[in-house]
């Protein structure tokens, strides 16, 4: 069982746990108060609450260097005390690496109000300033404050942001980019976010935004890329964009070394991103690093689900197995090991332990007895308390990171998920396609190879949405019939 996951990362694309504020609160507040009674600590927690902090290289039960945290969840005023975010604010900067999401999702959902296309709108201006200052203060890399193209499709987003068309979203993002470009301190490096709900929009967004990473246009340019919208779930489009970046001179060593894929959770994508990272390192930029994030370990726990197995059958479907956990007040004195109780209660046929779960029993999850009241003085429906969720989140984080690394190890041994190899008249493997595309120094040939395998690539589904041809054709049909009003 790997406890130093940093050492086992090797040359794989880097998964970033999208750290939840709920989880960080337990680490941070325990540093200042007795936020959790130490009687609730399980045997592996020899260093108290810091045992659950994977960013703590000395005290964590398991260690992992890389994470993501969103400004959309943060206390943005850096002069304001933020005990619940101390895990982020006071991490060991020499031994950890953190990417800051800028909070564009909050604009899209209408949470951050303001006329975002107006550089002088007081609400948008103030939020823009706070986000940049926060990213510069606490993050190694940060994403620019992009306005997702889907904002115009949500009534609350349109009403709160003043964004009603695709181009207005582009214009608003350029306002933010111009502010970041002018006011960033250099303490944090910034990724230029690429958006677009379909192929046409993605191409238009890139053409208008690529200048911000171009040393020919900006001396102090942005330092890499973040793939959002259709770019992050459509592998044919993602490769097309990478080809453009390479031949446009915008993927250079020491200049644009990092690319992040937003909200990417599928195991097959972890392998594909490793293949792409390796191919670009071999043929173009040896410093190139791909990162990707998801919040699944935290969201699953919030829904009562626990990771129990990693499934990597050769030529089959690969997955993190998540199942609903047992939740019954009759277990509040049950000292059965968690893994045994899981199988006994029929949650799933196996339970793969983590460095956290191996010290847990049924009663560490099901804390409340039949007549026990919760923190608000009521007898609720669940036997779990808030720390039960924290422990299971920690288990899920380790399992997700380890699953990504184990999937890469199996892949390197020749065990392949079915979607990454096509066996019809001939055998087509994804890694061979990618190697061929990035081995050529001819732009037209690279694009031709990508298009040659489009039908195969379009069959590889992303985390959300349609892929490839469906999106491209649907957009073409739409644009032939309708014109967006400004």
Explain this structure.
The chain is built from 17 helices and twelve strands. With 486 residues, the protein is α/β, with parallel strands linked by helices. It has an eight-stranded parallel sheet. Strand 2, helix 2 (86-89) and strand 3 form a beta-alpha-beta unit. The protein is globular, with a radius of gyration of 23 Å.
Supply the key terms.
disordered C terminus, 486 residues, 17 helices, two-stranded antiparallel ribbon, alpha/beta
Question: What is shown here, in short?
Answer:
Helix content is 38%, strand content 12%. With 486 residues, it is of the alpha/beta class. Helix 10 (296-302) packs across helix 13 (386-412).
List the helices and strands and how they pair.
Blueprint: E1 14-17, H1 21-30, E2 66-70, H2 86-89, E3 97-101, H3 104-108, H4 122-138, E4 141-143, H5 155-161, H6 166-183, E5 189-194, H7 199-209, E6 224-227, H8 235-247, E7 258-261, H9 267-283, E8 289-294, H10 296-302, E9 305-311, E10 319-324, H11 338-344, H12 362-365, H13 386-412, E11 421-423, E12 427-429, H14 430-439, H15 443-452, H16 454-458, H17 468-481
Parallel strand pairs: 1-8, 2-3, 3-4, 4-5, 5-6, 6-7, 7-8
Antiparallel strand pairs: 9-10, 11-12
Helix pairs in contact: 8-15, 9-13, 9-14, 10-13, 14-15
Number of helices: 17
- Work out the helicity level: 25-40%
Quick one: biggest sheet?
8 strands, parallel
Low-confidence stretches: 466-486
**Which outline best applies?**
globular
Provide the β-strand percentage band: 5-15%
Spatial extent as radius of gyration: 23 Å
Task: Kindly name the structural category.
Answer: alpha/beta
Mean pLDDT metric? 93
Query: Total strand count, please?
Result: 12
Order of helices and strands: EHEHEHHEHHEHEHEHEHEEHHHEEHHHH
Question: What is the terminal separation in angstroms?
Answer: 57 Å
């Amino acid at each position: 069982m790997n406890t130093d996951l940093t050492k086992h990362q090797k040359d794989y694309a880097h998964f970033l746990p999208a750290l939840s504020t709920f989880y960080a609160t337990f680490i941070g507040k325990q540093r200042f108060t007795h936020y959790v009674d130490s009687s609730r600590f399980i045997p592996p927690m020899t260093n108290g609450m810091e045992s659950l902090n994977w960013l703590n290289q000395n005290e964590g039960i398991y260690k992992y260097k890389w994470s993501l945290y969103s400004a959309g969840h943060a206390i943005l005023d850096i002069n304001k005390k933020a005990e619940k975010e101390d895990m982020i604010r006071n991490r060991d900067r020499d031994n950890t690496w953190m990417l800051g999401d800028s909070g564009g999702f909050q604009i899209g959902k209408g949470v951050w109000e303001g006329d975002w296309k107006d550089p002088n709108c007081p609400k948008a201006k103030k939020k823009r300033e706070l986000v940049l200052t926060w990213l510069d203060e606490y993050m190694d890399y940060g994403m620019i404050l992009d306005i997702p193209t889907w904002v115009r499709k949500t009534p609350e987003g349109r009403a709160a942001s003043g964004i009603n068309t695709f181009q207005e979203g582009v214009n608003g993002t350029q306002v933010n980019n111009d502010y970041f470009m002018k006011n960033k301190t250099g303490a944090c490096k910034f990724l230029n976010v690429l958006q677009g709900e379909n192929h046409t929009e993605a191409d238009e967004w890139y053409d208008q935004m690529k200048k911000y990473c171009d040393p020919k246009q900006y001396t102090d340019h942005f330092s890499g890329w973040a793939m959002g919208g259709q770019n992050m779930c459509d592998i044919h489009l993602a490769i097309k964009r990478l080809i453009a970046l390479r031949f446009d001179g915008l993927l250079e060593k020491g200049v644009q070394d990092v690319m992040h894929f937003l909200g990417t959770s599928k195991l097959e994508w972890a392998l594909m991103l490793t293949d792409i990272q390796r191919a670009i390192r071999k043929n173009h930029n040896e410093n190139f690093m791909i990162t990707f994030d998801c919040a699944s370990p935290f969201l699953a726990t919030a829904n009562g689900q626990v990771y129990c197995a990693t499934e990597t059958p050769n030529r089959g479907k690969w997955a993190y197995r998540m199942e609903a956990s047992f939740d019954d007040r009759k277990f509040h004195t049950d000292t059965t090991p968690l893994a045994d109780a899981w199988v006994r209660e029929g949650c799933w046929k196996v339970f793969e332990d983590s460095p956290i779960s191996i010290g847990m029993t049924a009663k560490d999850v099901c804390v409340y007895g039949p007549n026990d009241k919760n923190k608000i003085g009521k007898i609720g429906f669940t036997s779990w308390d808030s720390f039960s969720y924290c422990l299971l989140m920690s288990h899920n984080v380790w399992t997700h990171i380890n699953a990504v690394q184990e999937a890469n190890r199996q892949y390197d041994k020749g065990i392949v998920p079915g979607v990454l190899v096509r066996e019809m008249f001939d055998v087509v493997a994804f890694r061979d396609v990618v190697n061929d595309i990035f081995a050529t120094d001819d732009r037209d040939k690279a694009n031709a190879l990508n298009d040659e395998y489009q039908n195969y690539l379009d069959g590889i589904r992303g985390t959300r949405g349609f892929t490839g041809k469906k999106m491209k054709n649907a957009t073409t049909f739409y644009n032939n019939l309708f014109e967006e009003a400004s």
